[in-house]
Amino acid sequence: MPNHVGDNAGSDGGVPQAEDPSLARIGAFSDGVFAFAITLLVLSIRIPQPADADASHGLAALLIQQWRSYLAFVLSFMFVGMNWANHRVMFAAFARANHTLVWLNLLYLMLGVAFMPVPTAVLGSWLGNPNNQIAAAVFYGMAAAIGGLAYNLVWWYGAYVAKLTSQNLSDSQRRAHTIAWAPAPFVATALTAVAFVTPPLAVAGFVAIAFAYILPLPKLVALKQQWHRTRSSHRGKKRR
Question: Is residue 130 helix, strand or coil?
Fold first, then answer.
C-alpha cells in the first residue's frame, strides 16, 4: 500500500535525500488550480452581442465601457501569476511534505487562488460606482490579504515548524524568502484600509504590488544580505 504524504521521505541526517514524490503530486494539483483560476478571470469580461438591449450604443462604445473589467482582469491575472511563480519557488525549497502541509496548501489554494475570480468580477463591475466602489475595493483587498496570509502560513509551517526544507537551503536563503513574502498580507491590509477612503488609489497600490512581485524578491533580498555581510567584513579588516 502507498505511504501517506511525506511518510516515505528519508530521515537520516547527512544523507542527501531524493525528492519526495508527493511534492510532485502537490505541485501538479496546485498548477491545475492556478490554471483553472487564471482562466476563469476572463469570464468577468462581457462579450457584447447584437441582440443586447444596449447594442444601439455601438460595439466600440460597449467595449470601451468595460475598461474597469479589463483593469481588474489584468490586475488579478498578475496576482495569480505572481502567486504561481512564488508557489513554485516555495515548494522547490521543500525536500518533503506531510499531511499538515498538504491541507495548508489546499487552504491557500482555496482562499488565495480559486476564489480570486469572484472579487475580480466584483471589482470590474462596481469600480467607479459612487455608492459601491468602496465595498468592491475593500472586498478585493480583503481577498488579497487573506490569500497572502494563507501563503505565508504554508511557508512558515513548512520552513520553521515542520522543518521540511531541503538541506541545500541555507539559513540566509530561508530568511530571504521570509523577508520577501512576509510583508504581502500587511501591505494588502494597508491598501484595504486606503480603499475605505480612496478606492482608485487602493487599486493603483494593488497594481504596484503586482508589478513589484514580478521581481525575484527572495534572490534580491539574499543578494542585499550578502552585500551587507561583505561590507561589514571589509570594515572589520580595515579596523584591524
Answer: coil
**Does residue 187 lie in a domain region?**
yes
- Number of structural domains found in the chain: 1
Residue 93, CA distances (Å) to 158, 173, 226 in order = 9, 10, 19
Question: Look-up: residue for cell 508557489?
Answer: 87
Sequential DSSP letters for 30-80: HHHHHHHHHHHGGGGS----TTSTTGGG-HHHHHHHTHHHHHHHHHHHHHH
Task: Give the pLDDT confidence of 48-59 residue by residue, as tens digits.
Answer: 999 989 899 999
In a domain, 203, yes or no: yes
Residue 152 lies in a domain: yes
What pTM value is reported for the model?
0.81
Instruction: Give residue-wise pLDDT tens across range 166-219.
Output: 999 999 889 989 998 999 999 999 999 999 999 999 999 999 888 877 776 666
When computed from its CA atoms, the radius of gyration of the chain, rounded to whole angstroms, is 22
DSSP three-state, residue 9: coil
